[in-house]
């Protein structure tokens, strides 16, 4: 009810130096921003804290200076008709839009980036585990290949000796058979041949 009176008293207390101050009255806070001799003031509930109201004041200050410059010679309420829609739109934005609080938005972005990084790290770790399994399988395959080569060489040698013994036995049997045939026809000592 008495917000205009409180705002007027606060404005009277403020000097002309560039500053940012906040005053509390009941459950409301009056936030003041003075830049280049211009005073920007907003009343907000305490629950808004300080960041959002001062972000609103900085935004309004920048828009006002961009539109009207320093405006030191202005008469009271001279820009109210032109600038009131801008004020209403900016107050609506900062009062309802969660994107208005830059710090909270940045914190939210950081949390999102953190979750993405955690997911990426988990994926890399999973790939690392898969690579470890692949390395283990490769090691096992190399051991199996080495064992196979060794066993194949041993089997080849075994078969070669078995084959050599068989040819030795066959050669001995053939030699005995020839001797036996010759011994039957020429005599046991083979003198008559």
UniProtKB/TrEMBL annotation:
Residues 1-87 form the Longin domain. Coiled coil: none annotated. It comes from the Eukaryota. Residues 102-162 form the V-SNARE coiled-coil homology domain. It is found in: Endomembrane system. One of its GO terms (biological process) is vesicle-mediated transport. PROSITE patterns: LONGIN (PS50859), SYNAPTOBREVIN (PS00417), V_SNARE (PS50892). Keywords: Coiled coil, Membrane, Protein transport, Transmembrane, Transmembrane helix, Transport. Its main location: membrane. The chain crosses the membrane at residues 166-190. GO terms for cellular component: cytoplasm; endomembrane system; membrane. InterPro entries: Longin-like_dom_sf, Longin_dom, Synaptobrevin-like, Synaptobrevin-like_transport, V_SNARE_CC. CDD domains: Longin, R-SNARE. It is a single-pass type IV membrane protein. Involved in the targeting and/or fusion of transport vesicles to their target membrane. Belongs to the synaptobrevin family. This is Uncharacterized protein. It comes from Dunaliella tertiolecta (Green alga).
């Amino acid at each position: 009810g008495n917000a205009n009176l409180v705002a007027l008293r606060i404005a009277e207390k403020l000097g002309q130096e560039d500053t940012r101050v906040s005053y509390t009255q009941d459950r409301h806070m009056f936030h003041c921003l003075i830049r280049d001799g211009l005073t920007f003031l907003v009343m907000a509930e305490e629950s808004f804290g300080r960041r959002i109201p001062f972000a609103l004041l900085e935004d309004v200050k920048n828009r006002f200076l961009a539109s009207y410059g320093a405006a030191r010679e202005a008469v009271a309420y001279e820009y109210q008709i032109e600038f009131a829609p801008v004020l209403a739109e900016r107050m609506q934005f900062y009062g309802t839009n969660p994107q208005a609080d830059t710090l909270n938005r940045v914190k939210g972005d950081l949390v999102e980036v953190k979750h993405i990084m955690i997911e990426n790290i988990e994926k890399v770790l999973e790939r690392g585990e898969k690579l470890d399994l692949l390395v283990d399988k490769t090691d096992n395959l190399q051991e199996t290949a080495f064992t196979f080569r060794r066993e194949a060489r041993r089997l080849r040698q075994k078969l070669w000796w078995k084959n050599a013994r068989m040819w030795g036995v066959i050669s001995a049997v053939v030699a005995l058979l020839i001797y036996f045939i010759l011994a039957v026809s020429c005599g046991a000592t083979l003198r008559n041949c």
